[in-house]
């Protein structure tokens, strides 16, 4: 691990972090080849060094360098893949230990071990400090698979139009515990408030937020053809949804076909009444009046 | 202002703007001498980031001669068809004294767009636009070429502040009306602006100007890096 | 962080405060208010402090760098910082020929009539500035509704506040004479008077132009980093800027006065009127005389109904325990100096005041949009705004 200590701790855009490949010998005399891949805030660029061109990882953001090991496991089915992130700030010994335990996970070529390391730049100290929010929207543009918080702007028979207010950031820092809680996809709404969000600074009233649409067949996973948008969303509702695709020029395509996705905040009587709470996954009730309305709710716990 | 704009209160149409009689003694002479003295040196700058609340990133650069506020808005969604990478737009604005013509500012702005297109990691920002506003709040230089290095610098720092990914820090240097913008530690030139000053006809002169600009660029860049890293430590 | 914990009780999907404020500003505001706080952590009746930087940009401020700039045409300026917002006001001027017939040319009967009319129309003695407000919000194009309404409101309020008398904008022209050696000199009759003490005025009278000019003042107000309603800040900044304004001395060339004599013979004709080229002295200036007793500062208040339904469970429990009778009664509250998105977007009832140090109103508007505004609240607002004006008036060094 000695060579990681040469990495700059704090970087600015354009600063070199490391070359694409690096080698090291471990205690048993094995060669370890490190292959560094780009994480958030970095980019692989060509550098000329004594007439030869070398690819190197360069920072594109101002922030702290984070190096994580990325291990890909192929089950026999070859379909599932598991990602485990380890913080390199841990002491080298621990890494060595885990290395030994997971030795099967590391691809071996004779006496050479290839380890894939992900280098990313973490902006600000917001993550590691108490705040849970990265309020810079800049690096959290909605991507496929991201969970977003949206407000319904318009509904029709076939779809609900929404504006994206915030992106639930999937780049959850390791120390927030989700990485160790669950394997596979990061447990959405982990119940601990650990997930991070980013907020658009752009006021939504000005019509410059990113827009999305939820088609009626993407509202729920079952009985997809019987979905009535009017019984699922109303304008003004705050909906938690997942990005299906970047969509066209104006709209992202979103889905709520999961238990933890759907309406999280809604007001009764099209916004005139008070706040409603979810009774079950398709009913919400206003406690002051006792009147219930239909919605496709996100799992309330 | 010849067309009556009814959305703004512009006052009576027949009022003439105040015209000052030209001063009797020429004031510009002593200034010139000073300028020559500090031509290649770095003027003392004060840099402040994150000063504007309603945008993603902002920077204020001030010296005795100017004060530039740059704000970065976005990435915002764009209208129209799908684009696989972000687009940058830059607006330059006169400050309290309307010094430059609009077309002059537009020209500089489009030149700046060229520079930042080559340093911002645009692939990260599909179907979005990044809007940059540069306000030349105070400017005593009367020569936009002298300001360009600082406009580039403040824009670059504002982009860093906004957290928009950039491949490299860029800034420009100005010698005798030649403004050259570099990246990659001076290895690559991303922009060249020449508006006034003596024409350069031969390679030798140009090489010397290039060398001096590069030196200035390295100075400016280390200034920026120092500023960024200092801010980070806090 | 309180929001995170509190939200958990109602709905286990929890949001950090920033996100919560974004997706449901109204609820976030109500939760804050239920705790006795505002999202900005100010008290209900607390204003933001104001920092001003007076007159650092204008031409006639000798202490500053800008005075060397020959292109600088700013007569008065102010930079006002309020919370995170800052406002830059610059006052520029123009000169307009007084087309209203000068009094000595009117026959006596007509003059009397004019006097009567003017007494009736006392507002006519005052004038305003022409403000253009720009709120930086990261876009280009036509001005927004907010910019237009704020500009208009500034114009009207300033006129009706009777702060700038028309007389103080009258140009007292001087004459530039060039002697046989080619050395020009500018003579201002009123200054000569003062120096010599005797009546030199007469000697210049024959060369003095018969035309009258007055200044027109323009204000360019640029608001950066807008976080809430801006009218108060614009008004206050304009007030400070006006107090620092200095009008340049203006003169016409000797030759123009000669020309004028001929013109008199022929009567006025528009073509020849253009020949007067009135120029301003690059060095000399006079302070703008304002009606000091009318100087006033603005403050604003919002009224919001507390929603008992969204008050936090814990707060309610506490209330029950302490049997706080007062808490039960208060169903709407007065907030001073509205700021932040949450407050701006959920408060519809407002009181806006401009008053001078004595507490006399120059402008008062009360908009009741649903929330109950009690006389007590209005009284409260008036008291607070009086304190605010007194505080603000002390910011400027006289």
Automatic annotation (TrEMBL), chain A:
Molecular function via GO: RNA binding
InterPro entries in alphabetical order: Csl4, CSL4_N, EXOSC1_C, NA-bd_OB-fold
A single GO BP: mRNA processing
Lineage of the organism: Eukaryota, Fungi, Dikarya, Ascomycota, Saccharomycotina
Record field: compositional bias (Acidic residues): 90-99
Domain Exosome complex component CSL4 N-terminal, chain residue ranges per copy: 12-69
Cytoplasm keyword on record: yes
Main localisation: nucleus
Keywords: Cytoplasm, Exosome
Location(s) in or outside the cell: Nucleus, Nucleolus
GO CC field: cytoplasmic exosome (RNase complex); nuclear exosome (RNase complex); nucleolus
Database matches in Pfam families: CSL4_N (PF21551), EXOSC1 (PF10447)
UniProt entry tagged with the keyword Cytoplasm: yes
Residues in Exosome complex component CSL4 C-terminal domain copies: 141-246
Name of the molecule in the record: Uncharacterized protein
Biased composition (Basic and acidic residues): 74-89
Entry-linked SUPFAM superfamilies: Nucleic acid-binding proteins
Automatic annotation (TrEMBL), chain B:
Keywords: Cytoplasm, Exosome, Nucleus, RNA-binding, rRNA processing
Segments forming domain Exoribonuclease phosphorolytic: 45-165
Molecular function GO labels: RNA binding
Pfam families: RNase_PH
Subcellular location: Cytoplasm; Nucleus
Record-level GO cellular component terms: cytoplasmic exosome (RNase complex); nuclear exosome (RNase complex); nucleolus
Transmembrane segment boundaries: none
Chief localization: cytoplasm
A GO biological process held by the record: nuclear polyadenylation-dependent rRNA catabolic process
Family: Belongs to the RNase PH family.
Protein name in UniProt: Exoribonuclease phosphorolytic domain-containing protein
Automatic annotation (TrEMBL), chain C:
One GO MF term attached to the UniProt entry: mRNA 3'-UTR AU-rich region binding
Subcellular localization(s) per the UniProt record: Cytoplasm; Nucleus, Nucleolus
Main location: cytoplasm
A GO CC term assigned to this protein in UniProt: nucleoplasm
Annotated keywords: Cytoplasm, Exosome, Nucleus, RNA-binding, rRNA processing
Alphabetical GO biological process terms: exonucleolytic trimming to generate mature 3'-end of 5.8S rRNA from tricistronic rRNA transcript (SSU-rRNA, 5.8S rRNA, LSU-rRNA); mRNA processing; nuclear mRNA surveillance; nuclear polyadenylation-dependent mRNA catabolic process; nuclear polyadenylation-dependent rRNA catabolic process; rRNA catabolic process; TRAMP-dependent tRNA surveillance pathway; U1 snRNA 3'-end processing
Keyword RNA-binding: yes
Annotated Exoribonuclease phosphorolytic domain residues: 46-248
A UniProt-annotated Pfam family: RNase_PH
Family statement: Belongs to the RNase PH family.
Name under which the protein is recorded: Ribosomal RNA-processing protein 43
Annotated organism of origin: Naumovozyma dairenensis (strain ATCC 10597 / BCRC 20456 / CBS 421 / NBRC 0211 / NRRL Y-12639)
């Amino acid at each position: 691990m000695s060579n990681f200590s040469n990495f700059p701790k704090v970087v600015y855009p354009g600063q070199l972090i490391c070359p694409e490949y690096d080698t090291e010998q471990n205690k048993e005399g094995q060669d370890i080849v490190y292959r560094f891949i780009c994480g958030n805030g970095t980019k692989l660029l060509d550098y000329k060094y004594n007439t030869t061109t070398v690819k190197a990882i360069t920072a594109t953001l101002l922030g702290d360098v984070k190096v994580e090991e990325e291990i890909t496991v192929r089950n026999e089915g070859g379909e599932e893949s598991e990602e485990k992130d380890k913080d390199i700030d841990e002491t080298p010994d621990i890494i060595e230990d885990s290395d030994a335990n997971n030795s099967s996970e590391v691809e071996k070529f004779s006496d050479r071990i290839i380890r894939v390391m992900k280098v990313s730049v973490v902006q600000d100290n917001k993550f590691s400090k108490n705040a849970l929010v990265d309020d810079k929207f800049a690096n959290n543009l909605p991507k496929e698979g991201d969970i977003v918080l949206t407000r319904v702007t318009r509904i029709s028979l076939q779809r609900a139009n929404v504006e994206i207010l915030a992106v639930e950031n999937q780049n959850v820092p390791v120390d927030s515990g989700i990485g160790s809680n669950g394997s596979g996809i990061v447990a959405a709404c982990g119940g601990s408030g650990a997930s991070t969000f980013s907020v658009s600074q752009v006021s939504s009233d000005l019509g410059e937020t990113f827009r999305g649409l939820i088609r009626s067949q993407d509202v729920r996973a079952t009985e997809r053809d019987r979905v009535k948008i009017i019984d699922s969303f109303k304008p003004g509702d705050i909906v938690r949804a997942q990005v299906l695709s970047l969509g066209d020029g104006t709209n992202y395509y979103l889905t709520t076909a999961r238990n933890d996705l759907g309406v999280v905040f809604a007001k009764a009587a099209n916004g005139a009444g008070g706040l409603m709470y979810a009774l079950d996954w398709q009913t919400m009730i206003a406690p002051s009046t006792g009147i219930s309305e239909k919605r496709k709710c996100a799992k309330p716990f | 202002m010849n067309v009556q704009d009814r959305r703004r209160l512009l006052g009576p149409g027949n009022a003439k703007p105040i015209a000052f009689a030209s001063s009797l003694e020429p004031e510009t002479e002593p200034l010139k001498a000073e300028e020559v003295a500090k031509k290649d040196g770095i003027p003392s700058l004060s840099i402040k980031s994150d000063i504007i609340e309603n945008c993603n990133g902002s920077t204020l650069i001030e010296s005795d001669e100017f004060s530039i506020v740059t704000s970065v808005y976005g990435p915002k969604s764009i209208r129209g068809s799908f684009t696989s990478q972000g687009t940058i737009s830059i607006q330059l604005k006169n400050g309290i004294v309307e010094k430059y013509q609009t077309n002059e500012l537009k020209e500089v702005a489009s030149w700046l767009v060229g520079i930042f297109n080559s340093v911002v990691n645009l692939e990260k920002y599909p179907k979005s636009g990044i809007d940059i506003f540069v306000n030349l709040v105070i400017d005593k230089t009367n020569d936009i070429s002298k300001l360009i290095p600082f406009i580039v610098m403040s824009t670059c720092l504002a982009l860093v502040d906004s957290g928009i990914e950039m491949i490299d820090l860029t800034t420009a240097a100005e010698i005798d009306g030649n403004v050259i913008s570099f990246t990659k530690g001076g290895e690559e030139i991303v922009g060249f602006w020449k508006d006034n000053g003596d024409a350069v006809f031969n390679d030798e002169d140009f090489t010397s100007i290039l060398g001096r600009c590069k030196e200035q660029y390295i100075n400016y860049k280390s200034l920026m890096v120092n500023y960024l890293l200092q801010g980070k430590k806090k | 962080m309180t929001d995170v914990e509190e939200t958990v009780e109602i709905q286990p999907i929890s949001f950090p405060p920033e996100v919560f404020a974004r997706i449901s500003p109204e609820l976030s505001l109500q939760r804050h208010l239920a705790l006795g706080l505002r999202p900005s952590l100010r008290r209900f009746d607390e204003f933001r402090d104001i920092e001003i930087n007076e007159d650092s940009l204008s031409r006639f401020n000798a202490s500053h760098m800008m005075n060397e700039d020959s292109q600088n045409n700013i007569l008065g300026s102010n930079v006002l910082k309020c919370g995170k917002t800052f406002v830059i006001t610059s006052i520029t001027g123009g000169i307009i020929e007084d087309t209203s017939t000068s009094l000595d040319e009117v026959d006596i009967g007509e003059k009397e009539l004019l006097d009567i009319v003017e007494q009736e129309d006392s507002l006519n003695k005052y004038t305003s500035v022409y403000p253009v407000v720009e709120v930086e919000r990261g876009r280009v194009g036509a001005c927004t509704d907010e910019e237009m309404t704020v500009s208009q409101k500034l114009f009207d309020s300033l006129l009706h506040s009777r702060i700038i008398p028309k007389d103080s904008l009258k140009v007292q022209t001087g004459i530039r004479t060039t002697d046989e050696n080619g050395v020009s000199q500018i003579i201002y009759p009123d200054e000569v008077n003062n120096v010599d003490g005797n009546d030199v005025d007469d000697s210049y009278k024959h060369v003095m132009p018969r035309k009258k000019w007055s200044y027109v003042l323009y204000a360019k107000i640029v608001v950066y980093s807008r976080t809430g309603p801006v009218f108060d800040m614009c008004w206050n900044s304009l007030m400070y800027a006006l107090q620092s304004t200095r009008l340049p001395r203006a003169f016409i060339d000797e030759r123009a006065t000669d020309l004028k004599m001929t013109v008199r013979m022929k009567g006025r004709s528009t073509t020849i009127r253009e020949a007067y080229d009135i120029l301003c002295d690059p060095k000399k200036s006079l302070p703008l005389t304002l009606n000091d007793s009318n100087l006033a500062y603005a403050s604003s208040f919002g009224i919001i109904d507390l929603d008992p339904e969204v008050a936090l469970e814990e707060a309610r429990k506490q209330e029950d325990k302490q049997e706080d009778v007062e808490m039960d009664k208060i169903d709407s509250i007065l907030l001073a100096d509205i700021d932040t998105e949450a407050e701006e977007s959920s408060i519809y009832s407002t009181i806006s005041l401009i008053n001078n140090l004595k507490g006399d109103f120059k402008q008062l508007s009360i908009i009741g949009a649903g929330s109950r505004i009690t006389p007590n609240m209005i009284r409260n607002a008036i008291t607070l705004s009086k304190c605010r004006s007194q505080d603000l008036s002390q910011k400027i060094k006289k």
